[in-house]
Amino acid sequence: MPVKVAVNGSGTIGKRIVDSVLLNKDFKLVGVAKYKPDYQAYLMIEKGIPVFVPRDRAGEFINSGIEPSGYIDYLFEEADLIYDASPGGKGVLNKKIYEKHGKPVVFQGGEDPEIAEISYSTFCNYSDAINKKNVRVVSCNTTGMLRLLCILEKEYGVKKALAVIIRRAADPKEDNRGPVNSILLDPPEIPSHHGVDARTVAPWLNITSAAVVVPTTLMHMQFIEVELKSPVKKDEVLEVLGRYRRFLLIDSARTGIDSTSKLMELARDAGRMRGDIYENSVFIDTVKIEDTRLYLFQGIHQESIVIPENMDVAYAILGLEHDQYRVVEKTDSLLGVGSLEKLIKTSRHRLKGENHE
Ligand SMILES: NC(=O)C1=CN([C@@H]2O[C@H](COP(=O)(O)OP(=O)(O)OC[C@H]3O[C@@H](n4cnc5c(N)ncnc54)[C@H](OP(=O)(O)O)[C@@H]3O)[C@@H](O)[C@H]2O)C=CC1
Ligand SMILES: O=C(OP(=O)(O)O)[C@H](O)COP(=O)(O)O
């Protein structure tokens, strides 16, 4: 019997969670909670997605020509698992409603860590999420940092880390945010919230982070410096990251991909759903090793990076699978994680004039 899933909120993250639930035969989408009768509500109904609305707003939807499938409380009652993808800070209010229904919930990174029993990132603490009632998937930048740092910890041990984060100003749909012509310290002090947040998942991690916001909507970019417990070679590190499909290793010199805009164009041209890049986009020419010290730049597609982890965590919360690697394999093959790597490798060989067969 598939697990019945409700998604509360259908913005940047919620609509992508819906996509991934619809792809997965282990899950059945009961429906989506929608609060405004806008074009997104029309689109969902066109796609056959059941839309549930607040009781006191049902009239607005019906007057706009949108026939809801029911009220939101029914949606929560029907579900075995609820994804909260509400605007950051609203989840804590929603939690009181979820508690009445007694259903397990996946919260997002815009909520305070206290909202859930644990904060989560698959490569760091999958097993801690098994049979938990409330789990918070950390935010996009923190997810990108933790994927890398937890793998490095497992392989080499991490002494300390620094993350300098160049944040996108807004998501592409957000026409009400900025800055449009400035580089904003975010916050105007060190650390930024990212390092602190990373430690809610990996308390062993000695990390400092700093962040600025720049006028772009496509991706975040992170500069990471890590001091490892033992010396490494660049090829070894790339081989390790390559084994985990959630890293897209980009050879800028050979492919010409040296910016977030070219990365996003690659994903669109390759036919990725919504043009998404679920992987950490590691620019391999920036991977520099000095004995135990490693430096690199990685691009993080904020709209989609947390979607694999949101899918993985359902298997833990519901106790469906105890082996994180089997879960990762399943999620990655459903979403096509790793597929761009092959494309990039192929084009590299073409450029070198090699036969890639
Ligand atoms: N955007 C990003 O880059 C990332 C965001 N996150 C986190 O994910 C969460 C969602 O962010 P994002 O998708 O960007 O937000 P959006 O603003 O894009 O979407 C929010 C959605 O929540 C709905 N909503 C409004 N009120 C409520 C409510 N009371 N309860 C439930 N849903 C409600 C809105 O519905 P309606 O349209 O009908 O008003 C809308 O669909 C936040 O915690 C955020 O920090 C994490 C990683 C990356
Ligand atoms: O989780 C995100 O960023 P973060 O990891 O920098 O906190 C998302 O990009 C949301 O950021 P926003 O709070 O600027 O909308």
Q: How would you describe this protein?
A:
The chain is an alpha/beta fold and 357 residues long. The protein has two domains: 3-138 and 307-334, Rossmann fold (3-Layer(aba) Sandwich); 140-305 and 336-352, Dihydrodipicolinate Reductase, domain 2 (2-Layer Sandwich), CATH 3.30.360. It has 14 helices and 16 strands. The strands form two sheets. It has an eight-stranded parallel beta sheet with strand order 4-3-2-1-5-6-8-7, with helices on both faces. Strands 9, 10, 11, 12, 13, 14, 15 and 16 form an eight-stranded mixed beta sheet that branches. The mean pLDDT is 96. The structure holds NADPH dihydro-nicotinamide-adenine-dinucleotide phosphate and 1,3-bisphosphoglyceric acid. NADPH dihydro-nicotinamide-adenine-dinucleotide phosphate binds at residues 8-14, 33-36, 40, 85-88, 90, 94, 108-111, 139-140, 171, 302-303, 306. This is Glyceraldehyde-3-phosphate dehydrogenase. Its EC number is 1.2.1.59.
